[in-house]
Design goal:
Elements lengths: L11 H5 L7 H26 L3 H25 L8 H8 L3 H15 L7 E12 L2 E10 H39 L4 H29 L9 H28 L1 H26 L13 H21 L5 E2 L7 E2 L4 H25 L5
Antiparallel strand pairs: 1-2, 3-4
Helix pairs in contact: 2-3, 2-5, 2-6, 2-7, 3-6, 5-6, 6-7, 6-8, 6-10, 7-8, 8-9, 8-11, 9-10
């Protein structure tokens, strides 16, 4: 997976400049999305037959919510809302957006290089030649290459959305059901495996995107050991958080909802509080086809994703609603230390409560 995710470490223009590299990241994201959705439908059917209505409903919610957000994200990035693409929008309504986008990307890739076309822009990146010595590189980007870059860029975002709005809560739920029932049927094992693969891939892409945003003017390349370190770091961080929540929920089911809601609400409101304190106005041109209400919905969705990511791991980037790009590119080490300190204390408190109250004192 580290090798497949390697291309996510490169900017869109760098992607399109390499004709021989296939769109692996698009295929992998689509396969994970379809596989996890199919497994969730399968598990939901099993819960329906066994009359476990609560587990069935939660499984469907954790399948549909990220799917809807993925459809909206793909339409937003490709600007379909203001165009004449009724068939594509219909497929998005049917939750088939990633499939049709993957087909479009493959068709574009197969057509690349057949006809010579004039470039529409020039990409400039600084490349590290030796220690402290940078050389600026220029690359010409044409219409077809730019379209391919847009597809790759969109699927990187959807991989993160699928991982933290769907796969992480889905894995937590299915692991909790397994602990309660004390057995793992094949259908649930497949769903948990798909969720784990989606989480690992999404967390890897999240780190790569964060580094790209911070070093936007530079050509950043990653080695295989760097990918392995990122995967181990993110996997252990998310696995610890999921395990703590499952243990706490197993002993104090009525209280876990309070912990989750408090975390999500606090993390959701934090960017808005900082925005209101800055005294800036709502950005009305996040998307030219959006009204003020549409802009608020888009910003709310981004904030929800931000809170879901920080619920399970460090987001690596800070959401700043006052910025045009919505991202604070400066690294705030104080906020990083505060996040991990608070998360350590919270996890320790939840484990201690689980240990002393698992007998049903509450």
């Amino acid at each position: 997976m580290a090798k497949d995710a390697y291309e996510a470490s490169r900017s869109p223009e760098e992607f399109v400049s390499v004709r021989s590299r296939p769109p692996v990241i698009i295929l992998l994201s689509t396969v994970l999305f379809c596989a996890e959705t199919a497994a969730a439908c399968w598990v939901s059917a099993e819960y329906s037959r066994s009359e476990d209505e609560v587990w069935m409903a939660l499984t469907i919610v954790f399948m549909l919510v990220p799917s809807i957000v993925v459809q909206l994200t793909l339409s937003f990035i490709h600007r379909d809302l203001g165009g004449d693409r009724q068939l594509v929008l219909l497929l998005h309504l049917l939750q088939l957006g990633p499939i049709i986008r993957c087909v479009e990307a493959l068709m574009i890739y197969c057509q690349m290089g057949r006809e010579e076309e004039p470039y529409v822009s020039i990409s400039r990146k600084k490349h590290l030649r030796s220690w402290g010595v940078f050389e600026e590189e220029e690359r010409e980007v044409g219409h077809t290459l730019r379209k391919m870059a847009t597809h790759r860029n969109a699927f990187k975002r959807t991989a993160v959305i699928q991982a933290f709005l769907g796969s992480t809560p889905q894995l937590t739920l299915q692991l909790y059901v397994t602990v309660m029932q004390r057995y793992v049927p094949t259908t649930r094992a497949v769903l948990m495996a798909m969720s784990l693969a989606s989480i690992t891939y999404g967390a890897l892409v999240l780190n790569i995107l964060a580094i790209q945003i911070k070093y936007d003017d530079y050509k950043v390349q990653f080695s295989v050991p760097a990918f392995i370190c990122i995967i181990l770091w993110r996997s252990l961080e998310i696995a610890t958080r999921v395990t703590v929540l499952v243990l706490f929920c197993a002993a104090l089911k009525a209280w876990v909802a309070i912990v989750v809601v408090v975390n999500l609400v606090a993390l959701f409101l934090l960017p808005w509080v900082n925005f209101w304190r800055s005294g800036n106005s709502i950005l009305e041109n996040v998307e030219k086809n959006f009204s003020r209400i549409g802009t608020m919905i888009a910003l709310g969705t981004v904030t929800l994703l931000y809170s879901a990511i920080n619920m399970f791991c460090w987001s690596a980037v800070q959401l700043n609603l006052a910025e045009r790009d919505l991202i604070d590119q400066s690294q705030n080490w104080g906020r990083l230390c505060l996040h991990y300190t608070f998360r350590l204390l919270e996890n320790a408190a939840l484990v201690i409560l689980w240990y002393f109250l698992q007998g049903g004192w509450l």
